[in-house]
UniProtKB/TrEMBL annotation:
One Pfam family it belongs to: Pkinase
Main location group: membrane
Bilayer topology: Single-pass type I membrane protein
Residues noted as binding ATP in the record, renumbered to the chain: K146
Location in or out of the cell: Membrane
Lineage: Eukaryota, Viridiplantae, Streptophyta, Embryophyta, Tracheophyta
Limits of the Protein kinase domain: 110-396
InterPro entries on file: Kinase-like_dom_sf, LRK10/LRL21-25-like, Prot_kinase_dom, Protein_kinase_ATP_BS, Ser/Thr_kinase_AS
UniProt name for this protein: Probable receptor-like protein kinase At5g39020 isoform X3
Keywords, comma-separated and alphabetical: ATP-binding, Glycoprotein, Kinase, Membrane, Nucleotide-binding, Serine/threonine-protein kinase, Signal, Transferase, Transmembrane, Transmembrane helix
Similarity field: Belongs to the protein kinase superfamily.
SUPFAM superfamilies noted in UniProt: Protein kinase-like (PK-like) (SSF56112)
Any one cellular-component term (Gene Ontology): membrane
Length: 424
């Protein structure tokens, strides 16, 4: 500190005395004053900001490089998938389905103005090739990808010619835009007539229902035995059965189909295929048996029972708890030899309804070995039904003996299988 006490007091007492003090900026080395310079602090802040900026820049650069790599990798993968689809289409050119451009589809459908419906894999539009030929154009919604559903449908349907299978007229593979062009069927799907909200107003009658069931059975039997390779559909359900102007049924939607040789008793699958409620138990778990053509038989059985009941097979809104799971309820009625409790007007209708119920219950046996082949099913449906034997209770041994699950209510087991499907 500076010492000002050495100034004589007499000088400070003078009237005109003015004390003036001044000094230059002190340096820490020659002064007792404590000197705090801001310079070192500023350097520290700048250094920290520089380090932070470098680290942040590095991370941003790394993120940009990663994003660029993934984009390029995805583009390359999609190009490979597209090349695979093109190679497949070249191989199937001899089967003569017509190839359309996306511009052709816009013209055929009048800019996609008349929508017929939507499904899991795309939207269907009504279109016209000429004034006389009406078609249904299915614009696939999952065109970005491997194109497996597209290849499945084109590869399967291009070689199929059967009155009970929808005819593929052509396809579109314009870049990543993919579509399928089918014959147009004016009466929509079977779903509309059996288990929709207004199905009571569209009841087909028991004789016609029997013809529809027989036509579907013949179509599936053709897929299993009438082609060079066995075709397993894996998604037989009312929404995939279309009806022409005479109510002849035609099987559609082969996006989940799988081909296998006829001498193969079982096929391998990595994931479950189909729609919950129609999927055979062995498709969920091999504890129930091997996946085979009998899996389609199970789906057909669930479809037939839905036709008999005019309702979904599982209905949690049913007033009577026993009726929640329809297949088990209908089996109990047959077991007790009670009348089937739905719209039946005469004896002939009752015979048809009972026959369809028995056929459906045979088809949904939990053990695949106990289910009939589709050829046998056709024979059962063509007969009068009087000689049909009552099937075993599908629900008394819901799980084969090699498992330890024991007796389980069918509805509960279906719910657990649905949960398995969601997990997978």
């Amino acid at each position: 500190m500076y010492n000002i006490y050495g100034i004589p007091y007499s000088m400070m007492q003078e009237e005109n005395y003015v004390l003036t003090m001044s000094w230059s900026n002190p340096t820490c080395g020659s002064s007792e004053t404590e000197c705090y310079s801001s310079l070192p602090h500023t350097k520290d802040v700048r250094r920290k900001l520089l380090i932070t900026g470098v680290i942040l820049g590095f991370f941003l650069f790394a993120i940009a490089i990663t994003a660029l790599y993934r984009t390029c990798s995805n583009d390359k993968t999609q190009r490979e998938y597209q090349a695979r689809v093109e190679m497949f289409l070249d191989n199937y050119r001899s089967l003569n389905p017509t190839r359309y451009s996306y511009a052709d589809l816009k013209r055929i459908t009048n800019q996609f103005s008349d929508e017929l419906g939507q499904g899991a894999y795309g939207t269907v539009f009504k279109g016209k090739l000429t004034n006389e030929i009406t078609v249904a154009v299915k614009l696939l919604s999952n065109s970005i990808g491997k194109g497996e559903e597209f290849i499945n449908e084109v590869g399967t349907m291009a070689s199929i010619h059967h009155v009970n299978v929808v005819r593929l007229i052509g396809f579109c593979a314009d870049g990543f835009r993919r579509a399928l062009v089918y014959e147009y069927l004016p009466n929509d799907s079977l779903q509309k007539f059996i288990s929709s909200a207004d199905s009571r107003n569209h009841f087909l009658g028991w004789e016609r229902l029997n013809r529809v069931a027989l036509g579907i059975a013949k179509g599936i039997e053709y897929l299993h035995q009438g082609c060079d390779q066995r075709i397993l559909h894996f998604d037989i359900k009312p929404q995939n059965i279309l009806l022409d102007n005479e109510f002849n049924p035609k099987i559609a939607d082969f996006g989940m189909a799988k081909l296998c040789s006829k001498d193969k008793s079982a096929i391998s699958m990595t994931t479950a295929r189909g729609t919950v409620g129609y999927i055979a138990p062995e498709v969920f778990s091999r504890n129930f048996g091997n996946v085979s053509y009998k899996s389609d038989v199970y789906s057909f059985g669930m479809l037939v029972l839905e036709m008999v009941g005019g309702r979904k097979n599982v209905d949690d809104t049913a007033e009577n708890g026993d009726q929640i799971y329809f297949p088990e309820w209908i089996y109990n009625l047959l077991e007790k030899e009670e009348d089937l409790r739905f719209h039946i007007d005469g004896e002939e209708d009752a015979k048809i309804a009972k026959k369809l119920a028995i056929v459906g219950l045979w088809c949904i046996q939990w053990n695949p070995a106990e289910r009939p082949s589709m050829k046998t099913v056709v024979q059962m449906l063509e007969g009068e039904g009087e000689n049909l034997t009552k099937p075993p209770d599908p629900f008394s041994s819901s799980v084969p003996k090699r498992t330890s699950a024991g007796r389980m209510p069918a509805r509960r087991l279906h719910q657990e299988l649905a949960a398995i499907s969601e997990i997978e």
